[in-house]
Design goal:
By secondary structure, the protein is mostly helical. It is built from five helices and two strands; from the N terminus they run H-H-H-E-E-H-H.
Length: about 130
Amino acid sequence: MFSVNAQSGMPIYRQILEQLRRLVASGQLQPGDELPSVRELALLHAVNPMTISKAYSLAEAEGLLSRQRGRPMTIAAQDVPKENKAERMKRLQPAIQQLVTAARQLNLNDNDVLNAVRQGLEQNHE
């Protein structure tokens, strides 16, 4: 469900929070869907449980998640507006710009970058 990259420069709790926002905005996570426990997610990604707890707490404060004692965290039952494709593409723009900047700095040609992106997309489908 989530992936973390310790080398990205973005704090891991923010990576998880951003992924949560995107998964809800795209409708891949629906109200009532249960999330993995803090402990499960921390073990899976070999991070401190407080990191996951911080991401979940911030998402709860935003109204994205709901917590019930003794139960897993769930996507809040409120009306979470599902974003259309244009809005979701807009969320992707900073990552695209970062990729383009890195590719230019590494003096990679467009075809190599496009092939690498295509390969990454294909690997993520498996």
